[in-house]
Amino acid sequence: MTPAGTLVTTHRIRGPLAKPRASRSLDTAAEAMPVHPARRGRGSLTNASGRFESEVRVAENDGWDLPEDVNPLRTVVTPERAKTIITRNESPDISFDRSINPYRGCEHGCVYCFARPTHAYLGLSPGLDFETRLVSKVNAAALLERELSAPGYQPKTIAIGSNTDPYQPIERTEKIMRDVLGVLSRANHPVGIVTKSALVLRDLDLLVPMAAKGLVKVALSITTLDPGLARKMEPRAGSPERRLDAMRRLSEAGVPTVVMVAPIIPAINDAEIEAILTRAHAMGAREAGYVMLRLPLEVRDLFAEWLMAHYPDKLRHVLSLVRSVRGGKLYDATFGKRMSGAGPYAWMVGRRFEAAAARLGLAKSRMPLRSDLFLRPARQGEQLQLL
Fold first, then answer.
1. Which residue in 11, 288, 293, 367 has the fewest CB atoms around it within 10 Å?
2. Rounded CA separation 181/354 (Å)
3. Weakest mean pLDDT among 76-80, 90-94, 134-138, 195-199
């Protein structure tokens, strides 16, 4: 159902969609758009076409002002048989060169998620589609076992959760992450996990033995301690208290834990840096990191719409501060700058983070995981050759 006062029209265009609105006009454009009511449990307010589509959906004021309910959107999961599962990267500003994403899209619905634009490659919207039309890589564990068994494979830490959350709600039934973790456990392969979900505790039976061998650590991303703000920004992620409790239980079980203050959003959650680090340290975190808000491609429009709906009085101020750390733009993908930004505001955030981490004894350097225990899985047919 279309929200009250809104008419959605479809326009056919030639070629890929134009780039998102220029950053300097985004403030005005967002203020002029109808304010779409939030759907319960969803972060995005709209479902604009991806940039590769031949049609664009535009919401316009229809002149009516009638109260209408906004229908909830059901999550749809499509199985996919992937061709490969370990993704490689050569980015110089991140600490890993390989990762696994068990799912495409993420039901947590974090409005700021930098992975949203990847849904455009599926012909879907980075908006509501990203959090409701998900893809499950059902053969992930089998592929991983095959790729680890390759004769030339050299083990190094695999990152899981760097793109979409492996413990998002559908993992309760899909169990792709658990199967992947089982393969890594049997192979004594190092893994670093990032999540916003207490569902990670389900896999303590695998994580604890791996931790005892120096093979795993878990980072909990805590964006805010305010449950109201968390519900608006990341509606289906675990509450801040549940994430902190998961950190405590992991730490008590001997699993090394990290707190990620990510992303830091100017004028929204930046005042909480010290408080988040203090609480996380008390729960057992011994490493910490942060990432400045990233707004690539379609995310900038989705985030501006979210600001207009929830914090209209802060919209221009927030976007102005974002531009101040991105060289006057809303995003700068330059290696070395994209994670922390540049300029006076970014410098101030960095120094606050460093001072709080040093005071609490949170390590600057990352704890290395072991790769010398790796046991290459047997390739199909190898067992028969031994008989």
1. 11
2. 33
3. 90-94
